[in-house]
TrEMBL record:
The chain crosses the membrane at residues 101-121, 133-151, 227-251. This is Multidrug resistance-associated protein 1. PROSITE patterns: ABC_TM1F. It is a multi-pass membrane protein. Residues 102-378 form the ABC transmembrane type-1 domain. The keyword ATP-binding applies. It is found in: Membrane. One of its GO terms (cellular component) is membrane. It comes from Talaromyces marneffei PM1.
């Protein structure tokens, strides 16, 4: 098989199957032939002393066991990713505070109104006599100043109020839940997954979710104002509104579902990358000693490649969305020109120019609206994970009915257990069932586990003394 096998054992039963024997004896390594290495020690047998520092051997590397992966709730997670969960929105709004949410919504609404209404002021100024131009200029300046104040208010409420409060509240809840989690949670959960909660998920809460929420509100109010202004200038365009909404609904449904899946895959692939990095840093001494640097280097590179695949596909999906929305707006512009030609006696040049300008702006607004909504929706996967920890991870709190023993306890030194039942976790069967035990003072006891292991008593100590 062209394979080198190393067997490390203290048994002599398999000596006849070996080609060479390396015997550790008297602080040296002896090279012996199996045929001459009999049961009784032969002092005349040839031996070679080998320097252990210069000892080089070819090792057969065994694959390292991977971290514990929980795939039990995959089906439920897929449903959640495809349809979303309204409770997640409420959980996030509760973390940012309702007053902060209202403040941000008010600022974005004021900004969107001022930004869109300024174009209507230009229409009035174009159709009005020249002597009223100063009035419209002053009104335009006032509207621009209000928009500037609203923009600063949006940034302040988003970055100073919402981001700080949501990050602080969610991080504190996560830290408290993890610190109070039982030992079984840490043995059943991959370390990289726990680190991903404090790293990538909290990073989304701090940096991506607040701007995505502000951008979503901003684009919604801007699109509403642009739609109202467009219909006021060209009422005939109302016939195209239902078809536009239907098209945008199906486009965002496809884009949102795919984008959310890719973002979840991106978050999950990073857990494997973090686990590989932690394994490398924790075992760097062993890796260097056995010459495994290339192997772990390849594993880290492979983990990086896997983590970048969902990100690349997400960029491709965003390009697809832009192309589709551009085609949709082109169709709407063609409809506008066709309707203008049909009803040219009722449409002025100013109205046509303003309508085309609004369509161009609506195209950009609609694209940013879908992207902001998708960014918020997919980034809420971090909120869903944090919410899942709060609901699924048990808290190992102190029993409020527990009684603290006095400072003199135990006064007699005896221990009595009556009808005690216990298990390693709530999902496993009972390891102890209705056990009653009485240990008298001074009595020595040896506790033997269910696997047969126990503490072997020595000469002076034969067990646990009560």
């Amino acid at each position: 098989m062209a394979t080198t096998v190393f067997l490390i054992t203290n048994s002599r039963k398999l000596d006849s199957f070996a080609d060479k024997l390396l015997v550790l004896q008297d602080s040296c390594i002896h090279l012996r032939d199996p045929s001459s290495f009999e049961d009784t020690e032969d002092s005349s047998a040839p031996s070679i002393s080998i320097d252990t520092d210069n000892l080089k051997s070819e090792l057969i590397e065994t694959p390292k066991p991977k971290g514990v992966n929980h795939r039990i709730k995959d089906a439920a997670d897929d449903i959640t990713r495809a349809t979303g969960d309204i409770a997640v929105y409420g959980y996030y709004v509760g973390s940012i505070g309702r007053l902060n949410a209202l403040l941000m919504s008010g600022c974005t609404a004021a900004y969107s109104f001022c930004l869109t209404f300024s174009q209507y002021i230009l229409k009035w100024a174009t159709e009005s006599p020249p002597e009223k131009l100063k009035i419209y200029m002053a009104l335009y300046a006032a509207i621009s100043f209000i928009a500037w104040v609203a923009t600063n208010g949006t940034m302040w409420s988003t970055q100073i109020k919402i981001a700080v409060r949501s990050g602080t509240v969610l991080h504190a809840q996560l830290l408290e839940r993890v610190l109070r989690a039982p030992l079984s949670y840490f043995t059943q959960t991959d370390v990289g997954a726990i680190l991903n909660r404090f790293g990538q998920d909290i990073n989304l809460v701090d940096k991506q979710l607040p701007p995505a929420l502000a951008n979503l509100n901003n684009q919604i109010f801007k699109l509403l104002m642009q739609l109202v202004l467009l219909l006021s200038v060209q009422p005939i365009m109302v016939v195209t509104v239902p078809s536009c909404f239907m098209s945008v609904y199906f486009i965002q449904k496809i884009y949102l579902r795919t984008s959310r899946q890719l973002r979840f895959l991106d978050l999950e692939s990073r857990s494997q990358l973090y686990t590989s990095f932690l394994d490398t840093t924790s075992g760097v001494t062993t890796i260097r000693a056995f010459g495994w640097k290339e192997k772990f280097k390849d594993e880290n590179i492979r983990a990086i490649d896997i983590s970048q695949k969902p990100f690349y596909l997400l960029l491709c999906l965003q390009c697809w969305l832009k192309v589709v929305l551009d085609c949709l707006m082109a169709i709407i512009a063609i409809d506008l020109i066709a309707l203008t030609v049909m009803y040219r006696n009722t449409v002025t040049g100013v109205d046509l120019g303003l309508s085309l300008n609004l369509i161009i702006l609506a195209n950009t607004t609609l694209l940013r609206l879908v992207q902001s909504w998708t960014s918020l929706e997919t980034s809420l996967g971090a909120i869903a994970r944090l919410k899942n920890i709060q609901e699924s991870v048990p808290s190992q709190e102190r029993d409020p009915y527990a009684v603290d023993p006095g400072p003199r306890w135990p006064s007699l030194g005896d221990v009595r257990l009556e009808e005690v039942s216990a298990s390693y976790s709530q999902s496993l069967k009972l390891a102890l069932r209705n056990v009653s035990l009485s240990i008298n003072p001074g009595q020595k006891l040896i506790v033997v586990g269910r696997t047969g292991s126990s503490s072997t008593p020595d000469k002076d100590q034969s067990g646990s003394t009560m």
